[in-house]
C-alpha cells in the first residue's frame, strides 16, 4: 500500500523558516510525480509545489522565491523548504502522490 507520512510542521513567527518532509513507501520512488498541497482556514485546498523524478519542479505564484521543493531518492523522501513565511502560509500541508494523500502537517505563522 502507498503510504505518505509528513512531518516538520510547527508554529513560527513571520519571516521564519520550516522544512517539511514527506516519506513515501509502497511505490517505485524512481519514477514519480509528487506534490505539496495546503488548506488554510476557510480556504480551498491549493497546490503549492510539485516535483517529478526528473527533478522538474512547479511552484504556485504565492510561494515562488520563498519555497523550495527537493527530493532524496535514497530516503524515499521529498522536502519543502519554506523561507520567509507569512501569516497567509498558515495551513495544513499535505503530501500527495497519484491520488494518495498523507495525513498532513500543520504550519502556523504568526
Q: In what range is the share of β-strand residues? A: over 45%
Sketch the major β-sheet.
7 strands, mixed
Series of secondary-structure elements, N-terminal to C-terminal: EEEEEEEEEEE
Whole-number mean pLDDT:
95
Q: How would you describe what is shown here?
A:
The protein is mainly beta. Helix content is 0%, strand content 54%. The protein is built from no helices and eleven strands. It has strands spanning 3-7, 10-12, 18-25, 33-39, 46-52, 57-59, 67-72, 77-82, 91-97, 100-101, 105-109. Strands 2, 4, 5, 6, 9, 10 and 11 form a seven-stranded mixed beta sheet that branches. It is globular.
Annotate the secondary structure layout.
Elements: E1 3-7, E2 10-12, E3 18-25, E4 33-39, E5 46-52, E6 57-59, E7 67-72, E8 77-82, E9 91-97, E10 100-101, E11 105-109
Parallel strand pairs: 2-11
Antiparallel strand pairs: 1-3, 3-8, 4-5, 4-9, 5-6, 7-8, 9-10, 9-11
Task: From the structure above, extract its key features.
single chain; 110 residues; 4-stranded antiparallel sheet; 0% helix
Amino acid at each position: 500500500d502507498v503510504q505518505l507520512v509528513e512531518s516538520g510542521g510547527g508554529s513560527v513567527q513571520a519571516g521564519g523558516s520550516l522544512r517539511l518532509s514527506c516519506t513515501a513507501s509502497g511505490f517505485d520512488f524512481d519514477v514519480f510525480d509528487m506534490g505539496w498541497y495546503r488548506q488554510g482556514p476557510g480556504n480551498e485546498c491549493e497546490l503549492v509545489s510539485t516535483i517529478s523524478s526528473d527533478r522538474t519542479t512547479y511552484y504556485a505564484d504565492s510561494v515562488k522565491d520563498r519555497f523550495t521543493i527537493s527530493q532524496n531518492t535514497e530516503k524515499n523522501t521529498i522536502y519543502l523548504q519554506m523561507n520567509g513565511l507569512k501569516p497567509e502560509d498558515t495551513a495544513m500541508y499535505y503530501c500527495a502522490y497519484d491520488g494518495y494523500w498523507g495525513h498532513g502537517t500543520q504550519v502556523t505563522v504568526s
